[in-house]
Amino acid sequence: MDGGQSPRPQQHHRMPEREGNNNHDIEGMDGAAEGDWWQNSSSNALLRYDDRGSICEPLMRKRTINTTSQIAIVGANICPIESLDYEVVENNLFKQDWRSRKKKHIFQYIIMKWTLVLLIGLLTGLVGFFNNLAVENIAGLKLLITSDLMLKERYFTAFLAYGGSNLVLAAAAAAICAYIAPAAAGSGIPEVKAYLNGVDAYSILAPSTLFVKIFGSILGVSAGFVLGKEGPMVHTGACIANLLGQGGSRKYHLTCNWLRYFKNDRDRRDLITCGCAAGVAAAFRAPVGGVLFALEEAASWWRSALLWRAFFTTAVVAVVLRTLIEFCRSGKCGLFG
Q1: Residue 239 domain-assigned?
Q2: What are the recorded GO MF terms, alphabetically (predicted)?
Q3: Which residue range forms the structural domain that includes residue 151?
Q4: Is residue 30 in a domain?
Q5: Pick from 274, 282, 289: which is nearest to 192 by CA?
């Protein structure tokens, strides 16, 4: 070398391995300059040293508090979504149970199914008529007040009346949905499809969801939102069918023991399929359209007996709506008709 100077030997530092099975939490390694080196100290903290050997801030420090999430406990029910059992296990026990039933029980089972689909059609038709009646009267009254103010050349007052009424209706619809039944948000068709395909989410067919669905859709449509009552009517029909199929609600202590035959997933699925078809029929006054919607879009399990029950349900809805609309032609329903 020039000048007879020998090069300085390079020092290689190796970090000793950590002893024990301690858990370390990385505090951060930002700002570590090139050439800095770090090693483990006896205080169980991983320190960083610079070229001069001075200690910088610790890179890793031993965690002394157990922060394990208690949700990770095996067996904890952290998700309310359940899968439904639609398959019938035809084993010897199941066949023996059906053979042990008398003809009277089988006849009662069949009559109960047709009676329930009749009730589903009646109630869904009444709810559909109530929705139309309420929307036409609320929206019509709002427009009448605005028109009277504009005829009097009070344009700013008319604007305030129209905008204020829309704001109140929209706020009321959002409030009952947010604070009573958040599961009622949206059209409800994806939730019904999920249930008919074996996925049961929390409160999607509960009585509170039915209440918010009916009044929320009325307030939302009356407020002038760009939405309709078709999707909510599908969800409404499914909620009505679910409540009838399980004999009410156990949460509100409204159950009936005589509906014990239908407290299973398979029969409830068939009733909700009929309710879905009834909702479409109530929204469009189209019985065949409701059956086709349930067959093509919603249900994944279908058979001929369910086809006839669904068509009977939609026919009942059409008859109810036709009768009530003819009654309102006499002018006894306010602004409706």
Answers
A1: yes
A2: voltage-gated chloride channel activity
A3: 103-330
A4: no
A5: 274
